[in-house]
Amino acid sequence: MIPYGRQEITEADLAAVQAVLQSDWLTQGPAVPAFEAAVARRVGAAHAVAVNSATSALHLACLALDLGPGDWLWTSPITFVASANCARYCGAEVDFVDIDPHTRNLCPQALAEKLRVAEAQGRLPKIVVAVHFGGLACDMPALQALARRYGFRLIEDASHAIGASVGGIPVGAGQASDITVFSFHPVKIITTGEGGMALTNHPELARRMACLRSHGITREAAEMEAAVRTDGDGPWYYQQVELGFNYRMTDLQAALGLSQLDRLDDYIARREQLATAYDQALAALPLALPARRPGYQSAWHLYPVALSDAAGCDRLNLFNALREAGIGVNVHYIPVHLQPYYRRLGFAPGQYPQAENYYSRALTLPLYPTLGGDEQAQVIAALQARLAA
Ligand SMILES: *Cc1c(COP(=O)(O)O)cnc(C)c1O
Q1: How many angstroms separate the alpha carbon of residue 234 from the centre of ligand 1?
Q2: What is the CA(73)–ligand 1 centre distance, in A?
Q3: Residue 185 near ligand 1, beta carbon < 6 Å
Q4: Which atom of ligand 1 is nearest to the CA of 184?
Q5: Pocket lining: 53 vs ligand 1, CB cutoff 6 Å
Q6: Residue 5 covered by a domain
Q7: 3 in any annotated domain
Q8: Are 193 and 108 members of one domain?
């Protein structure tokens, strides 16, 4: 079976992890800050906080932005559930904004309209999570203009988009948002097994997230409550100043990430090459292909197509036929508001028609750096055989 996504592990990766295994530090050693510094430098962010998953990074980002009970977080329905769940961990409410059917990202016009109504009702969001679906960045300047006008904070869920850029500026530079989150799950662009990172240009947000990732404990005198300290407290002394978590990344993971980061540019180039080949080979088929926008370099985490009405076959049949032919297609995503957990919160089919329409037609084709030209040709031939008029 040709999978829809797959990691690549090289000899250099193995050596990097082995070196950590044979060192003094399996966790809380030098590899984590080295990986943080390297990613921050690569994307042009001032601060980076490595954690054990992007889900944890989203949770910490929401906490650092003081999301709590009575607050609202808005995001796209076409995403992984973690983009919304982070609000629920904080006791906050979730709402969704429909997608632009072309980019399949949260639609800035739909957001503007929803904000106008919410302002009148006094229920504006505290945070909007912009998801760069498939690796194509959202229109961040448009979202930033709305954030300034309505006073909400912006988190970029860039789980799909490390290595992407807009106008040559990397996603993660954070020029239009408060915090950007990357995922290093094996199916994403680079991997640490499990892992994630939050990037920001705000030192206070970085400090808060770093503290919360490790139990809310600090060893910095400047961050401690002076009144609690006594003269007898020595170098061992630390304070737990708030309720945090153990969301730490290990040094094993960070060493793997650092080694993988060396290949980020190669990976994006190869993904771009494969996406271009799909664009050309599939142009004549009854499929809506992923959007391209001038100046936007996608990280091409995914290559999702949507069947047109003219396809004359339904998505389920096509999915099953391709799987039977050894092609590991997938579907991204079941709209989050249709999950039973969110239906119990009051969401229902029909609320986000663009997202639901896209989902009913969506199919993700195999795309990963080690996908061979012959394997891609097999995918293309299988689609042509079933869709060509
Ligand atoms: C993968 C993913 C996440 C969660 O990442 P983990 O590192 O697995 O926690 C969050 N948001 C989106 C859009 C994702 O694709």
Answers
A1: 41
A2: 17
A3: yes
A4: 7
A5: yes
A6: no
A7: no
A8: yes
47 and 193 inside one domain:
yes
Q: Which of residues 235, 261, 287 is at a domain's end?
A: 261
Tens of pLDDT along 322-360?
999 999 999 999 999 999 999 999 999 999 999 999 999
Q: Cβ of 143: how many Cβ atoms within 10 Å? A: 22
- Whether 61 lines ligand 1, by a CB cut-off of 6 Å, is no
Which among 91, 104, 82, 25 has a CA at the least distance from the CA of 298?
104
CATH of the domain at 97: 3.40.640.10
Token pair listed for 364: 């993700």
Predicted pLDDT at 232: 87
Note the pLDDT of residue 288. Answer: 97
Closest atom, ligand 1, to C-alpha of 301: 15
Same domain, 254 and 297: no
Structural domain includes residue 6: no
Pocket test for ligand 1, best of 183, 187, 197 (most atoms within 8 A of CB): 183
255 in the same domain as 275: no
Q: What is the pTM of this model?
A: 0.98
State which residues form the domain around 308: 264-387
Give the residues of the chain that fall short of pLDDT 50.
none
- The pLDDT of residue 328 is 96
My answer on whether 269 and 164 are in the same domain is no
Q: E strands along the chain, which residues?
A: 47-51, 72-75, 93-96, 127-131, 153-157, 165-166, 169-170, 179-183, 196-200, 217-218, 239-240, 287-288, 296-297, 303-307, 362-365
**pLDDT for position 159:** 98
**Residue at which a domain ends, from 261, 276, 306:** 261
Closest residue by Cα to atom 2, ligand 1, is 159
The angle that helices 54-64 and 203-213 make with each other, rounded to 10 degrees, is 120
pLDDT at 206: 98
pLDDT of residue 311: 85
Distance CA 369, CA 276 (A): 13
State residue 230's pLDDT score.
87
For 54, 159, 194, 256, 296, the CA distances from 249, given in Å and listed in that order, are 11, 16, 9, 11, 31
DSSP characters over 30-48? SHHHHHHHHHHHHHT-SEE
| CATH code at position 343 | 3.90.1150.10
Q: How far is the CA of 157 from the centre of ligand 1 (A)?
A: 8
Q: What is the pLDDT of residues 29-66, one digit of tens each?
A: 999 999 999 999 999 999 999 999 999 999 999 999 99
